[in-house]
Design brief:
Layout lengths: L1 H19 L2 H21 L1
């Protein structure tokens, strides 16, 4: 399971990197990162 999880994370990272190369997606990616940071901040 750990290996599968690692592969999924790698695929997700590659997808994000590919999306980040497109200018129209850069704002969307930044918003997703900000949301993720906000959620993480609330957990602590």
């Amino acid at each position: 399971m750990g290996m599968l999880s690692g592969l999924l994370k790698g695929a997700a990272a590659q997808k994000l990197i590919a999306a980040a190369r497109k200018p129209e997606n850069q704002a969307k990616v930044k918003r997703m990162i900000a949301d993720a940071r906000a959620k993480r901040g609330r957990k602590h």
